[in-house]
Amino acid sequence: MTDEFYMQQAMREARKAFDEGEVPVGAIVVLNDKIIGRGSNQVEKLNDCTAHAEMLALTAAFNFLGSKYLMEATLYVTLEPCLMCAGALYWSKIGRIVYAAKDEKNSYRRSTGEANPFHPKTRVEQGPGEAESLQLVKTFFAQRR
């Protein structure tokens, strides 16, 4: 499987969030070519400011594995993680993070600057799907105005 395939799976989660009136962010966790966790934003649904797609996907992956570490796993997420999610990703020791679109307003970089908040062995890269992710977010907020 490719990064493009897995990012499309994360985009499915983002579209689900969009359809439910949530900020459209989706995430999946992949280990050994198998999706072991999925999440879409559920902040409004759960009245929980921590119910970000990444957090929910991580929790599902931890439960699937019965482990708190994801050293060999990859997180695919449609929008660059925020500082809270970056902290959770640090503690998970996830092996790789692939995000579709930068988030200049709310990403971890806004608080950390150039400092890396992830585990030293975690690889972080921008992957495919940037235009689709940004369009979905822009459409969501345009409909709210």
From TrEMBL:
Annotated stretches, region: Disordered = 109-130
Q: Where is the signal peptide?
A: none
Query: Which residues are in the CMP/dCMP-type deaminase domain?
Result: 1-111
**Biological classification of the source:** Bacteria, Pseudomonadati, Bacteroidota, Chitinophagia, Chitinophagales
What positions does the entry give for Zn(2+) binding? H52, C82, C85
- Which BP terms from GO are recorded? tRNA wobble adenosine to inosine editing
Requisite cofactors: Zn(2+)
> What does the Swiss-Prot or TrEMBL cofactor note state?
Binds 1 zinc ion per subunit.
The entry assigns this protein to a family as follows: Belongs to the cytidine and deoxycytidylate deaminase family. ADAT2 subfamily.
Which Gene3D superfamilies does the entry mention? Answer: Cytidine Deaminase, domain 2
Q: What is the protein name stated in its UniProt record? A: tRNA-specific adenosine deaminase
Under the heading HAMAP family, the entry gives: tRNA_aden_deaminase
Q: What does this protein do?
A: Catalyzes the deamination of adenosine to inosine at the wobble position 34 of tRNA(Arg2).
